[in-house]
C-alpha cells in the first residue's frame, strides 16, 4: 500500500467516525477509489473563448461538443469511452435524463441554459474515442472570467476533481491575471499539467515563438520549475494535436499511479484543512449564547414545517423531491450555523417513481426528524448531562489533534 493511500484510509477512518465530518469522509472515499482503481480524470481548463470545446473535439476526433462564437459552455461535460455515442444529463436534484446529442446545447450552452437555470450538475457523454479506450475520463469545463459568474464557479469547483489538466492558452490574448489566479488554484489539486497554446494557425512563426517564450517565462515562475513543456496547437487545422494526445496518453499508461498519488496528496491536504475549519465552525456554534441558538433552532423548525406543508401537497415524482428537500435543508444549515451538513443525493432516471404518497411523507418526516436529532446531538443543544458534554468535547479535541498530525 502506498503512503498516500494509507493516509487516505486513516483520514477516512477519522472523518467517518464523527457526524460533523461525514461529508468530508465521502470525499476521501472517492480518493481511495481512484487510487485503488487507477481512475484518471483529465480536464481541459482555461479562460473563456480559448477554444476548449473545439480542442476537446479535436482530441476526441469527433464533433461531439457544441461550439459557438459566443461563450457557450455553462456546465461541466464529462466524456467516457463507449462503443456507441450517448448523452446523459445529470441534474443537481439527482435526476438523470438521456438526451440526443443534437439536444446538448439546450443543457450546456449559456445561451439556452442561462445561469444554469435548469440545475444541471454535469453532462456525461459516451464516445468511441481511441483517446478514452484505457478508461480515462476526459472533462470539458466552463471557461473562467466571462460575464457569467456561474460558469466560473463551476470551473473552479470541478478543477478539484482533476488529476491531470490541459491548461489552455491562446495566441490572440497574452496570459492574464485571471488565468494566473486560476492556474494557482488548480495547482493545489492536480498532479500533472499540460500547457497548450491554441489558434497557432492565426499568427506567423516568429510571433508564435515570441508568445511561447513569454508564456514559458511566466509559467515556470508560477509552477516553481524550469521543466515546462508547451504544446502549440490549432483546433481548427489539427496542427500539434497528435503530440499533445500522445504525451497525455503515455503519461496515463506509464505514470498513472504517480500522477494519481500526487493529485490525491494535494486533494487530501485540502480535505483535511476544510475538515478542521468545519470543526472550528462547530466550536463556534456550540459556544453561541442560548438565546441565539434558540432563534436558529426555531428557524430550522420553521423551515421543516414549510417543507412538510409543501410535501403534503406533492403528488408526483416523490423520489426527486426528497433529494430537493435534502439540498434545501443543507443550504439552510449552512446559512444558519455556517456548517456543511452532508446528504447523499441518490441519482434516479428522470420520471422514475418507486414510492407512493404515504411512503414519501414518512421519509420526509424521517429526514426532518433525523436532522433535528443530529443537530441537537452534535451541537449539545440544551444538553444538561455533564458527562455527555465532556465526551463530545474530548471527541472533537482528539479528532482535531489527529487531523493536524495527519
Which key terms come to mind for this protein?
13% strand; 406 residues; ten-stranded mixed beta sheet; 10 strands; alpha/beta
Could you characterize what this model shows?
- With 406 residues, this protein is α/β, with parallel strands linked by helices.
- The chain is built from 13 helices and ten strands.
- It has a ten-stranded mixed beta sheet, sandwiched between helices.
- Helix 1 (3-16) runs antiparallel to helix 2 (22-37), helix 9 packs antiparallel against helix 13 (386-405) and helix 10 runs antiparallel to helix 11.
- It is globular and about 75 Å long.
Topology, pairings included?
Blueprint: H1 3-16, H2 22-37, E1 41-46, H3 52-60, E2 77-81, E3 86-91, E4 95-98, H4 105-108, E5 120-127, E6 137-140, H5 149-159, E7 164-170, H6 177-186, E8 192-198, H7 205-223, E9 230-232, H8 241-254, H9 256-286, H10 290-312, H11 318-337, E10 348-349, H12 357-379, H13 386-405
Parallel strand pairs: 1-6, 1-7, 2-5, 4-10, 7-8, 8-9
Antiparallel strand pairs: 2-6, 3-4, 3-5
Helix pairs in contact: 1-2, 1-9, 2-9, 9-13, 10-11, 10-12, 11-12
Query: Which spans of ≥5 residues are poorly predicted at pLDDT below 50?
Result: none
Kindly state the number of beta strands. 10
- Report the structural category: alpha/beta
Q: What separation lies between the terminal Cα atoms?
A: 17 Å
Q: Judging from the principal axes of the Cα atoms, what is the shape?
A: globular
Number of helices: 13
Amino acid at each position: 500500500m502506498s503512503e498516500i493511500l494509507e493516509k487516505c484510509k486513516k483520514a477516512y477512518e477519522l472523518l467517518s467516525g464523527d457526524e460533523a465530518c461525514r461529508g468530508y469522509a465521502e470525499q476521501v472515499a472517492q480518493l481511495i477509489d481512484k487510487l485503488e482503481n487507477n481512475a484518471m480524470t483529465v480536464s481541459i481548463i482555461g479562460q473563456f473563448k480559448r477554444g476548449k470545446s473545439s480542442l476537446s473535439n479535436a482530441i476526441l476526433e469527433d464533433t461531439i461538443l457544441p461550439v459557438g462564437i459566443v461563450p457557450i459552455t455553462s456546465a461541466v461535460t464529462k466524456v467516457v469511452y463507449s462503443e456507441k455515442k450517448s448523452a446523459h444529463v445529470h441534474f443537481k436534484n439527482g435526476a438523470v435524463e438521456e438526451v440526443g446529442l443534437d439536444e446538448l446545447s439546450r443543457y450546456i450552452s449559456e445561451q439556452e441554459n442561462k445561469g444554469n437555470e435548469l440545475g444541471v450538475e454535469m453532462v456525461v457523454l459516451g464516445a468511441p474515442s481511441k483517446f478514452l479506450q484505457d478508461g480515462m475520463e476526459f472533462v470539458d469545463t466552463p471557461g473562467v472570467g466571462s460575464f457569467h459568474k456561474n460558469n466560473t464557479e463551476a470551473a473552479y469547483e470541478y478543477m478539484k476533481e482533476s488529476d491531470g489538466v490541459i491548461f489552455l492558452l491562446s495566441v490572440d490574448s497574452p496570459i492574464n491575471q485571471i488565468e494566473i489566479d486560476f492556474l494557482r488554484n488548480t495547482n493545489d489539486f492536480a498532479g500533472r499539467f499540460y500547457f497548450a497554446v491554441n489558434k497557432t494557425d492565426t499568427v506567423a512563426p516568429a510571433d508564435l515563438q515570441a508568445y511561447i517564450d513569454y508564456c514559458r517565462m511566466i509559467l515556470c515562475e508560477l509552477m516553481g520549475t524550469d521543466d515546462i513543456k508547451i504544446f502549440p496547437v490549432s483546433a481548427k487545422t489539427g496542427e500539434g494535436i497528435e503530440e499533445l494526445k500522445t504525451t497525455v496518453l503515455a503519461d496515463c499508461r506509464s505514470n498513472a499511479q504517480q500522477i494519481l498519488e500526487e493529485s490525491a496528496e494535494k486533494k487530501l491536504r485540502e480535505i483535511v484543512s476544510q475538515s478542521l475549519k468545519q470543526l472550528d465552525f462547530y466550536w463556534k456554534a456550540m459556544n453561541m449564547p442560548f438565546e441565539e441558538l434558540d432563534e436558529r433552532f426555531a428557524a430550522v423548525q420553521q423551515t421543516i414545517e414549510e417543507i412538510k406543508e409543501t410535501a403534503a401537497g406533492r403528488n408526483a415524482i416523490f423520489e426527486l423531491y426528497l433529494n430537493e428537500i435534502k439540498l434545501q435543508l443543507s443550504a439552510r444549515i449552512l446559512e444558519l450555523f455556517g456548517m456543511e451538513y452532508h446528504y447523499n443525493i441518490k441519482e434516479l432516471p428522470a420520471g422514475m417513481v418507486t414510492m407512493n404518497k404515504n411512503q414519501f411523507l414518512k421519509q420526509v418526516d424521517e429526514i426532518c426528524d433525523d436532522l433535528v436529532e443530529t443537530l441537537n446531538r452534535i451541537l449539545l443543544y440544551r444538553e444538561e448531562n455533564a458527562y455527555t458534554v465532556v465526551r463530545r468535547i474530548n471527541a472533537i479535541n482528539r479528532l482535531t489533534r489527529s487531523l493536524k498530525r495527519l
